[in-house]
Amino acid sequence: MSTTTAASRDHQSTRTSWAMPILTVLGIAAAIAMAYLGSGALVGTPVAEAAGGALSADATPLAPASAAFSIWAVIYLGLAGYAIWQLTPTARASERQRALRPWALLSALLNAGWLFTVQLDQLWLSVVVIVALLAVLIRILYLLGRPRTGGVVELVLTDGTFGLYFGWVLAATFANTWATFADAGVTAFEEVPVGIVGLVVAAAVAALAAFRDGGRIAPALATAWGLAWIAVARTEGEFASEALVWTAAAAAAVVLLAAIASQIRR
């Protein structure tokens, strides 16, 4: 009887611990607000026009069309939903969420930081920040392998949100890297063959991630989304190229097929 009572008391203590959940919701809210400001929506310069237009839709062979960035609205909405849900008793009693919160908060802060590095025209620093963000999201995907206790709500707000987040940042990392080298005068990163190499490597990394994480669909969808919009962007403009269009489209299909095949195999 005493053992059961003690276990119940420990569980209740864990469930009612508010410090980290409150810090997480405040931090994510602040990070989303900073990201909104850093995007140039109210002040500053829109990202596509910042750093001399290095990140515009026609800056490099790996730049996605402007419409691709609409995925951020879904990711931010998911982060807001996650921040609220992780305050619930179910989430506060979850070991999975306990491990996830600090990394979720860090990912939001790094994203806001990336936007400000671009506003300050610090492209090389932006690459460092986005690579760090990608590393944090890889860690988050690893943590999401732990048992889920929150049912469909947790599946959507946690696995879905951070899956999309990872998949998009993976594609964005390649685009950011190409833009930075091109802006630095490395002309090879403005050539079609090097662009094709980048698309193939991005697809290979995303496919490997799909096989490693059991074929989660959200990361594959987000990466494929980014690759598909690269294909759209290469239908016109300075870097218009049939080779890039077909390579980007094929890369998007490979990423999705890898996730589906991994799901079936699992």
UniProtKB/TrEMBL annotation:
This is Tryptophan-rich sensory protein. Gene3D superfamilies: TspO/MBR protein (1.20.1260.100). The keyword Transmembrane applies. Keywords: Membrane, Transmembrane, Transmembrane helix. The keyword DNA repair does not apply. It comes from Corynebacterium suedekumii. The chain crosses the membrane at residues 18-37, 65-87, 99-117, 123-144, 156-180, 192-211, 218-237, 243-261. It comes from the Bacteria.
